[in-house]
Amino acid sequence: MVLNTPEFFESIKQPEDLEDVGRSVQNFINKNSTKRIVFVTSGGTTVPLEQNTVRFLDNFSEGSRGATSAEEFLVHGTSVIFLYRKNSLRPFRRIGRSAIDGLEIKNNKVVCNSALESQLKTDLETASRVNDEGTLLEVPFTTVDDYMFYLQKIAILLSTVSVTPFIYLAAAVSDFYIPQSRVSEHKIQSRDIGNLVIELDPVPKLVFDLVNQWTPKAVVITFKLETDASILTKKAHDALAKYGHQMVVGNLLQTRKYEVILWYSHRNVLGIEDEMEFYNENVVKGASIGASKQSDVIDEFKISKTDRIKNIESLLVSTILKEYETQSQRFLRSQFKNRGAAGI
């Protein structure tokens, strides 16, 4: 049985630092009150089998999409709250794991090749600027319990901002969990129980609460990963209809690194301010972005990476920002036109 939202939160463990995180987020919001804030979630969540955790179930995710997307949002001039799995990839720290491929020995010294040196220089310069400007706040989580409490807290705090926030839900959240009342206090002793049978409860989908209660003025972007291309479009359309948010990013497991599809719902356009301080879109050469009208209320954008583009996220983020600007301006023009026709 799927619990309702209040029952679900009563069944999981609240992180001890929740109020401290809330204060940090509020301070960040206050300091970035004139900028657009993007709330990015990233990485997988764990489901502990014991309160003093030795064993746990895990959703595999390095957090590559979330960390890379956060970088791109920062490059485009937004501020970012980055809710990430502890020890997963983080903005401007992703290159470390693959850096060995860009190192070589010359004259008995370890040196970077030109490609790695250029990438490190760019990342360090951008990270330094972001640090100086105070436009990135990172909040780590581990368990699905932590994630849900932080998500709710941060989303509710963002409901007070004057510039429409974006919520970019790239985390790989567990579909099942164990309520605290059924979690063993100490390490499960294998010799005492023989076969281990674990009963998992479904995690409720909280996107509806996020969209309609916690942060109703936000632009919300969710993700849909499938292995069957024939059901991807229907799944995306169903999500937009069910939750009432603005965008779904769909990808196939086999091609997720270099191809995604963005669905944008016109029906669900919310939070367009009277002010229009949007982002200037840089012309990206070497990209392949095709737009087609999927229906009278949903646009579909197929985004493909080419050799000239460093990652698919740079195209995805720029397309999201550009499309939001386009739809916002279209909305405002229609409002002015309607007022003129009415003689207002």
From TrEMBL:
<keyword id="KW-0436">Ligase</keyword>
<dbReference type="GO" id="GO:0015937">
    <property type="term" value="P:coenzyme A biosynthetic process"/>
</dbReference>
<feature type="domain" description="DNA/pantothenate metabolism flavoprotein C-terminal">
    <location>
        <begin position="166"/>
        <end position="255"/>
    </location>
</feature>
<dbReference type="InterPro" id="IPR035929">
    <property type="entry name" value="CoaB-like_sf"/>
</dbReference>
<protein>
    <submittedName>
        <fullName>Phosphopantothenate--cysteine ligase</fullName>
    </submittedName>
</protein>
<dbReference type="Pfam" id="PF04127">
    <property type="entry name" value="DFP"/>
</dbReference>
<comment type="similarity">
    <text>Belongs to the PPC synthetase family.</text>
</comment>
<dbReference type="InterPro" id="IPR007085">
    <property type="entry name" value="DNA/pantothenate-metab_flavo_C"/>
</dbReference>
<dbReference type="GO" id="GO:0016874">
    <property type="term" value="F:ligase activity"/>
</dbReference>
